Queue: 2 jobs
Job 1
Amino acid sequence: MSADINKLEQIASQVRRDIVRMVHACQSGHPGGSLGCTDYFVALYFHAMKHDPSFNMNGVNEDLFFLSNGHISPVFYSTLARAGYFPASELSTFRKIDSRLQGHPTTHEHLPGIRIASGSLGQGLSVSIGAAQAKKLNKDNSLVYVLMGDGELQEGQVWEAALYAPHNKIDNLIAAVDYNGAQIDGSTEQVLSLGNLRAKWEAFGWDVLDVEKGNDMASVVQGLEEAKSRTGKGKPVVILLHTEMGNGVDYMMGSHKWHGVAPNDEQLELALNQLPRTIGDY
């Protein structure tokens, strides 16, 4: 299926507007990583993934997605809403008391599209491997996707899971790393260097794919298609998705400052002036 890149870019612009408005409204949240991963989420939910917005928790015969770095919930919620899982108007309740749209996704709120609570970092890869194994056991040929942050790779559980998947030939799994080089306290290089990530994943037995332009929609779509073509060949696949924190809003780009800071009124207006309203604000 060919992708309509222009349509995907229009959706991505609206999702970015949603993100900055949601975080501004409650003066809390994580805009930087959300903006950086927008193109991936839109390409995944509006092109690459086979999924059903009517939502069944078991996800039989459909692709599954797990968000491991749950603090970028704004982009996840916006994408789910725009894909039809729940009304976009509900985005206005982000991080409010009794809202289903909590700061980190939770399952007890029964929000369509959410299959795991993801607050504590480092657990999503393990969960996705379990789901992928279950699909194999059930003769379900659908795929499992998971997104992790690069700072999250400093967690030990990630590497236990990374050893397990190739050993058990979990080849219906496509992991992605948001490779923006920034975390809450600074650059990943300064906080705890990740070294040569490609070499690490390859040494653990993964099929590694670099997407150098993680904020270029055509490149992200092509990368996801390439990753899908590599499944079913005895190895799990991991995409190193080179993104820029805060992408789309010039004053947020390239700085870890906006990892978890909300824009003020003036900053919101500056952001919205850079992000075209395409399919309607909530």
Note: The beta strands are 64-67, 144-149, 173-178, 182-183, 186-187, 207-211, 237-241.
Job 2
Amino acid sequence: MRYLPKSPVDREEMLAEIGVASIDDLFSTIPAEFQLKRDLKIPRQHGESEILDRFREFAENNAVGYSSFLGAGVYRHYRPVIIDSLVQRGEFLTSYTPYQPEISQGTLQAMFEFQTMICELTGMEIANASMYDGSTGAAEAIMMAVRVTGRDGAVIARTVHPEYREVIATYAQHQEIPTVEVGYSSNGRVDLAALDAAITKDTACVLIQSPNFFGTIDDVAAIAEIAHAKGALLIVSIAEAVSLGIVRPPAEADIVSLEAQSYGVAVGYGGPYCGVIACKEKFLRQMPGRLIGETKDKDGKRGFVLTLSTREQHIRREKATSNICTNQALVAMMTTIFLSVYGKQGMKELAEQNLAKAAYLESVLRATAGAKVLFDGAPRFHEFVLELPKSADETNAALLGDKIIGGLPLAKWYPELGPNATLWCATELTTRKQMDAVAAALAGKKA
């Protein structure tokens, strides 16, 4: 039974046992002004048509009709309508862990294809069937490197997403993993000299992000050479997965942590998203999460099963590589459908569109009087840092009057860049009209 009622006599006996006269006495420590001693102000019942009207009113308070130039780890890309049509099928929507492969072949095959596509995109040899998101994936990758190397330290680039670094700090604190951050050079890439100096005999791994938080693409090969020369693993975090359509995959890395939100997952007010860890096959048994393997049944037919799963739901807690207790199978399914729809050539064309849109946005904003693009001299994907003539907060407040959501202020995480530095993003959904409009607004003109 989901609900076991207690009789008045039962309640009196319970209160007597704990030594109070009434239920109200249980709340006596709460100040009187905070106690609710009246009926709740609940509106009358509504008909279905009234409820729909009420939610339409709520929707009108949202940012309808605004153009947005925000990115910073969450990206607006077109979602083919087929995604929701398929993931909302009961076979996928209600499935959980496919412990019984004989009745879960569809789910298992879809997850296997997900792993295969991730390997093709990242240049890695093996991938798991998803993590919570990009931030926890990066933290789990560091823990994985500690297990692989037997060392206990991590060197992290400051150009890794600041919120990823906050999540990593929480993990590292309780895993007793000391971390060191290294800065960036004038072109926005990792400072290689500082990185080389920071790696010691106790360093298990180096974590970078490429494209990094400033939108700059790092020299993964050079960083890998520095890390490997001192016995450390290289972890590459990728927050913008669409970049892999045109940016060379980080094949020199040992572990890749990917946020797959850009592959058909809605912005959705911050989640749920889909993290992934991919790596060299020799590190397979230290990979967290779940893994789908291909096998053959008794008749020799192709089949799929859960295999080598090292999460604590599957094996003894002391043997588990992670305390992750689920994955993002349904969100990973969205990714699988997205990649299947676009295909290899489509992903390349999509990335080229993003690259071109950002190049145009940069060109029109660079022409604004007093504006300056920071970190020139290194390749970028679809984000860049712009220093404005006025503070970022003041500028964004003014842009809102023109129904424009401007770039992300960076002073909170990078105070050395000053209050005028902002991070701007353009994707395939950003129109030329919107970009011309924001340039005109910054110049004090009407588009």
Note: The CA atoms of residues 73 and 239 lie 5 Å apart.
